[in-house]
Structure formats: C-alpha cells, structure tokens
Amino acid sequence: MKTLLFFDDMHLNQAVNLHRQIGAPKLLQTLSFYDDDSRIAWSYPSVFFDQHSAKWRMTYQHCGTTFPRVALLAESTDGEHWHKRDTTPDLVFANRQRCNQLIPTEEFSEWSATFFDERAPEEERLKGFVVKHVSDYHLQAQLWTSPNGLHWKPKKGAIWQSIAPDPATCAYFNHVTGKYTIISRPDWTDRRLAMHETEDWIHYTDQKLVLQADALDTPLAQLYGMQVFPYEGMFIGFLWVYHPMQEVLGGSPHKFYGGRVDCQLAYSLNGTHFQRGIRTPLFENIPDSPYSGCIYPTSVRTMPDGSLRIYASASTHEHAHDEGKMSILTFELRQDGFVGLRSSGGCGIAGTRPLLYVGGDIQLNVKCQGSVRAQITDYEGKPLPGYSFSDCQPFTGDSTAWVPHFKEKNIEDLTGKLIRLEIALDGAILYAIRGNLHSLYAGQCWRFEHEGEIPKERLGFD
User: Fold this and answer.
1) Which domains does the chain carry?
2) What distance lies between CA 66 and its chain's CA centroid?
C-alpha cells in the first residue's frame, strides 16, 4: 500500500482553508532513564532487541566535557524500563571506568547511535561509528561491529572517514540506491551534514554535502546532526538544530558555548537529497521540561499499533554547560504523526492529485472533534455520482485507518480508474492517506487516460 504524507503539497492540487501542523510527540515520563554515575546529556541512545538474551538493549555513552568518553550498555525486559548492564563478568578492561562499559577507553573517544543492520551476517549485525583521537586535534572514524551489543570489535580496514567529525552520525540502507548511507558532519566542529555511501563497509565514497543551516533558521544556527530512518518508502530525518548564543564567549573560534538544541524535521524521497519544511520543532525546548535545554532523538521503534517509540538524550541545561539534569527520554508519536493538514477555522478541503486506484480499502489517518467526509471525483475534479460529500457517512473521532463509506456505492467499483480524493475537514487534522494508489502528475495522467500507458514506479521520485 502507498502512503501519502503531507510534509509538503506534492500529492495535492487543492488546499482550501488549511494549514500545516507539526506533530506532538508525547513524553512517557515514567519511562525516563537516569544514570547517576554518568553524564548523558548527549549520550545518543540506540535501542534494539537481542534474540540470544531475549532482552532489549540500549547503547549510550558517558559524555564528560573531556575525552575520552565511555561507551555504555543498559538492558530491559520490555524495552521501556532500563537498568545498567554490568559487563564486568564478560569484558575485561585494564582501565575500566564504569561497570557497564563496552569498549576500552584507549580505543575510544566518542560514538553515535548504533545501527542495526538486518542485512548483515549475525556477527556484524550491529554497527557502531567510533571516533578516536589520533592526535590532539585530529579524529579518526572507525567502524566497530557486534552480534549482540555486548561484545564489540573494530572491523578490519573500515576507516569510514579519515578526517573524522564530532559524532552525530547515523546510517541506513537506501532501497533507492541499493547502498548504505552514512550521515555525519564533514569535519570536527563543522556543523553541517554530509554523506558517504558504501556497499561493503570497507570502501566508502567521498563526502557529499547534504544540508546546512540557511536564512530561514534563527540567527547563527547550525545543524548539530541528523538521525535518518526509512518510513513508508521515504526517509525521515530528525534534524538537531543548534541555536547558539549570538556572541562568542571565552575566546572560542567557533559557536560553542550556551544556546539550545531542538529537533526539527527533514525528509527525502531518495535518501540522498533532503528537504526541510516548516521550521516548527517536532521536539521543542519546553520550559521546565527535562529537555528545556537540549534534546537529541536518536532511536525509533515501530510498535504493533503503528505508533512510534522515540528515544532521546536530553538536558535541562544549555549546550556545553555543566549544571542541570540529564536523562534518556521515551516519547510516543502516533502512526504517520509527523505533519498533518488542519482546517483553519470552519471547514477545510484537501484535494489530491489524480490517483490510479488499484483496489482495496482507502484509509485515512485522521483525528477530529468535528467531522470528516470524503468525496471522489474524476481526474478533472468532477464529483462522481454516488461518491459526493453528501453521500459519505461522516466520521468523528480518532482513527489511523478510517475507511470512507458511501450510502449506495462501493469504492472498489472504481478499481483501475483515475480518481481524486477530496477530504472535508471540519475541526479535524489529516495525517495520511493510505491505499493501493499511485499519485500521478498531469503528464502521467493524460498518457494513462488517452493512450492507456500504465505509469511505471519511479524509485526516489514518488
């Protein structure tokens, strides 16, 4: 099934009395994790299930103000309530600093989120992007692997970036290119985003610039990092935006001390070219919250109901400060709940581009206190008899899969035809449309209608 999301208006040709609204992840306060022995303000937690122990595991790091930092492990029976995993019976280190330490400090300066690579052999299923100081001002980025999140070793020959960045690194498999993509900073303190690609985790392409802050950002803003994950055929980025103080303090040669980090959204159809929509944060620095200073979402789990569990390191203090509370937080986001289209007082209408309907249910992810109705038109926008707003049974409530029903007509009778959907939103917000649908631009539509040409799937475009 195809999912139409509304980061932008690509799938629409009608938008009346609507505005775009960023989602609202819910903090699950009782699932917060604290480590009184470690500083975890930017600990970059990663959550995964280990089949051998039948437990959830979470890698994170102690992030003191000096190097080296310390790689750490926590465990959970449910993926919600965590405790530090004592690794001393399993791992012997000469200079152990924490009971739940994973990597010797002489081999480690810092790392980022762990990548769970389901395509890899079991012994390399987990991948960690470790940064090690090879001199005072030069970092080397090396790939470490693990079968279970407990036993780690460097992958021979896998130096993925010779001029290494501050960690804020993520990796994902790109189904469009058939390669793995690594997103990181170009260099130490260069707070922009670049990408490498690899097929074998030994050979890596040269860097390509992906994103940098622009004039629509707050003054002096920088992109601290971005965690990317595939979602419904596209790629969504949790973009960490650093809003520094607007003056340089302490003689630092770059923007460093003070200011907050929030998380905004970026998105991509092909996993290599990213776009940004409205700059309202998905995770904003709410006063008096555990993330009033900085927040870094790094890990995402899809729950059985389609909702997302999002794990983030956070602090009440501003960037590079020492005072404040630090925690690893768990948030919940409804399925498709990144961005929605909301009626702006009174009834709003969202109308799609022409859709080649292949059959089956058409589902709407919608939440409303008023009502929602749908109507179906031909590809030119004329309502089809029996499929008008007045024929549709209205819906009130909250559903991730509401199926419009019409008094005397069945949607499946339109299988194989070009249609449009129009959604009337009265006190409602629409998050997604899902179904066996192909969203067509005008040229495809005309060729199908007049020449019978079946549109071909265009990976990375649709």
Assistant:
1) 2-22+340-451 (2.60.120), 26-335 (2.115.10.20)
2) 29
Contact between 71 and 91 (Cβ < 8 Å): no
- Helix, strand, or coil (residue 124): helix
CB count in 10 Å sphere of residue 112: 29
Q: What is the pLDDT of residues 276-326, one digit of tens each?
A: 999 999 999 999 999 999 999 999 999 999 999 999 999 999 998 878 999
Contact at 8 Å (CB) between 296 and 240?
yes
DSSP string, 370-426: EEEEEEEE-TTSPBPTT-SGGGBPPEEEEEEEE---BSS--GGGGTTSEEEEEEEEE
C-alpha to C-alpha distance for 192 and 46, rounded to whole angstroms: 22
pLDDT of res. 250: 60
Tokens 């292949």 map to which residue?
A: 358
Structure tokens at 31: 């699932």
Segment 363-371 shows an average pLDDT of 96
**Cβ pair 435, 360 in contact under 8 A:** yes
Distance CA 67, CA 108 (A): 9
Q: Please give the model's pTM, rounded to 2 decimal places.
A: 0.96
Q: Is the peptide bond before 121 cis (omega within 30 degrees of 0)?
A: no
- Contact assessment for residue 2 and residue 436, using Cβ atoms and an 8 Å cutoff: yes
Q: Residue 293 and residue 277: Cα distance in Å, rounded?
A: 23
Q: Answer yes or no: are the C-beta atoms of 268 and 299 closer than 8 Å.
A: no
d(CA 162, CA 141): 6
The Cα 66–Cα 116 span in angstroms is 28
CB-CB contact of 420 with 377 (8 Å): yes
Closest by Cα among 343, 364, 339, 346 to 428: 343
Nearest to 152 by CA among 119, 127, 117: 127
CB burial of residue 377 (10 Å; 0-12, 13-18, 19+):
buried
15 has a pLDDT exceeding 90? yes
| Coil, helix or strand at residue 260 | strand
